[in-house]
Amino acid sequence: MSGGIDLDLCYSVVLELVKTAEELIRNGINSAKEVQHKSCEVDLVTETDQQVEKLLISGLRAKFPDHKFIGEESTADGQKNELTDAPTWIIDPVDGTMNFVHSFPHVCISIALLVNKVPEIGIITNPVLGQFFEARKGQGALLNGKKIQVSAVKDLSKALLSYEVGTSRDPEKMKVVLKNVNTLVPLAHGIRCLGSAALNMAMVAMGASDSYIEFGIHAWDIAAGDLIVREAGGVVIDPAGGEFDVMSRRCLCASSIELAKEIVTHIEQYYPGRD
Ligand code: IPD
Predict the structure, then answer these.
(1) Are strands 44-46 and 190-192 parallel, antiparallel or unpaired?
(2) In testing the pocket of ligand 1, which one of 94, 196, 201 has its CB within 8 Å of the most ligand atoms?
(3) Cα 207 to Cα 255: distance, rounded to the nearest angstrom
(4) Helices 7-28 and 47-63: angle between axes, nearest 10 degrees
(5) Is 166 helix (H, G, I), strand (E, B) or coil?
(6) Mean pLDDT of 7-29
(7) Ligand 1: which atom is nearest the Cα of residue 107?
(8) Which end of the chain is more exposed for a tag (fewer CB within 10 A), N or C?
């Protein structure tokens, strides 16, 4: 229980709904899709994004009528986002929509439950590749039922980084993003763009990469990953070195605080409008 909330019940309800949602993604990824644009030409949405979000929110709302929701597609439809102390589900129905549209198999559903603004449950599931990441506060992080841990990497010179351009083509942001690529590539072991913020964080949690940095993501992209990375022994901070704020649209996670702080000293900052 947390703040009078039965977290075990919340967990079992969301797991049931996730099974149906995963089926929608598995069925949709290799089928023809109706694709629409949101904020710009490369910010996409499909009918599957909308169906999955509707399924999850209506199913959770039916069981927990007092809970609040922050969902990617509800926000695109004009719903105002506000993170309060109330139990709040933060949902990205398809993280990696561009990947989904191209049948590139790195797509996932990302779901977090926050109570008093503290993450209690995090789920990132890629039903195409069969990767189910989960964490409950204080109980560690799991991949397909087995405990996972971040890597032991502490030096940037030994680190594999994930970094994303994101879905904005704002010239000011592009300048910062590309400058950071120029700076980081010669300093690190390598750099990757998976096309899903949540899966980038899951890779850090399982020790497959050592850090992920992005400006311009939204709460639904990173809320579950925040808990999963920390429960796997990693750190999640603001890219300027301060405390992580899930609504700030800025994220740096890493296998260690030493690595995170080293990256902070090298990168240029970008401050998008808050969620
Ligand atoms: C996007 C992905 C992408 C990241 C963007 C996100 P969406 O989420 O996570 O990797 O670079 O910033 O918006 O639109 O596929 O849910």
Answers:
(1) unpaired
(2) 196
(3) 8
(4) 160
(5) coil
(6) 98
(7) 15
(8) N
